[in-house]
Amino acid sequence: MYARGVNMGVFMEEVVFARRASGLVRELGFQDAFIWAIATPAASGITFYSVRMAFTYPGSNAALSFLIASLIILPITITLGIMSATMPRSGGMYVQVSRVLGPTIGVYAAWAMVIGWGIAIGLLGYIVTGILGSALIMAGHAGGGAGFISVGSAMATQLWQTIGGIVFTLFFWIVSLYGLRYVKWIERILFYLPLAATILAILLFIGIGPGGVSKMFDSMWGEGTYMKILSAARDKGWGFPGFSWSATIASLIVPFWAWTGFESVTFASGEVRDPKRSLVYGFIGGYIGCMILYTVVAWSVYYPYQEFIGAYVFLANKHPDVLAGIMPAAITPSVPFFAASLSGNLILGAIIAVLIALWYANSIPPVFVSTSRTLFALAFDRAFPLKLSEVNERGCPTWASHVTMIWGIVGVFVAAFSVDVILGILDFTMLNFFWLMGLSALLLPFIRPEIYKMCPVQKKIAGIPLLSILGLISFALGFWIVCFSILEFTYSVAVVMAVFLAVGFIVHVWQYSRNVREGIDVSKIYTVLPPT
Fold this sequence. Notes:
Strand content: under 5%
Number of domains: 1
Number of strands: 6
Shape: globular
Distance between the termini: 13 Å
Strand order of the largest sheet: 1-4
Radius of gyration: 24 Å
Structural class: mainly alpha
CATH topology: Amino acid/polyamine transporter I
Helix content: over 70%
CATH architecture: Up-down Bundle
Largest sheet: 2 strands, antiparallel
Number of helices: 22
């Protein structure tokens, strides 16, 4: 239970952690850091909400919105990569923040992150079930028969999306308990399949273009369907708005949500081999790759369809009965649907839709791992009950994974009640860490010079450490993002968030009081990095 007072070559008194070693295994490498930086965020934000933007933020330019948001977060990504290589420990930003700004701030940010990431697990499982249902409907119309249509239609209902979300959560909970090696290989497979389908979709969008879109869409869904949808939307009041800068800026909430999770591998830093190479070059390189993917997908899907996407999404949300009277089936609007509709073959279209939908599935494992490792790190520091720091023989935090699974199921039901309302909550809880991480990076060279010596970037500009400059930029941008996400809060959402945060601190104070009764000086824990 005790870590000796020498940590990273720095002499200190004996420090009490949950135990002498974490028990975690270094399974992840450069490829995984690169993949997780793309696979984790690339899900509902780009494949689902990007086309909804035409309706929820009329006049917005999705590609421009994604590009702006990506550039805003880029300095934060660079700072985080450097900080993670400096302090490669499970818990990621929790360790970085708590060792510089103090344990209370670290616990606050970590618990807020657990709230958001846990909900995201269920949300992703809920949405992917509906999209897979749409693919089955398409397969049914391609000749698969009424059975495919019936099952697909059922999967698009609230009941079966809820069941599907629970099933996905339970499946990845079981996989995680078998160890990070299984998670790693499943994630790799689930990454390359949708990536190939997405590249094919981009080629379809660009190749067919505005001139051929109506013909290809009609060949899939019936003669005149394309124009009927445009006419019906106009008749029902859709205004076909032109470009608006204000709408584009307001829509940044969507790409900010789309970027949540890109930092997932940093929360498993203690399980990454060669962290300086993997977390600086692999992680940052993956972010840049995802930024390019986001911008290209958001531009290419609107390129052939243009104003049609807004019309379709408008009918799907406001007048689904009208849409059902035009289409053979009122399929949920998404990038997979719009890509499949241009494939010229419903079977091929269904395959494309299913493979692209795997972006949702491949987001769940890294999010699950990140959430469980954050709970583990809190417990390892004795900030949360020690039970959460227990690890099985495969190197997986058991009780932390159990709690993550339960919270994921809660997320399924939150998604079932209102998908739109939770975007603000998710952006706040999942992006809240960044401004605090930036502040930690700003102060690290001055407050914790013994840790700063481990930083792979020692360059100075005008005598000021480059890390501090990056930290200042990340602090400012991160704080703006948090304030921006809070604009989505209603009074009821604010109350719920306050209750969630209070529950976390009740648990934290209970554990602190137990530490005091056992005669443990927890303040010493935060003077050193946790053992590996």
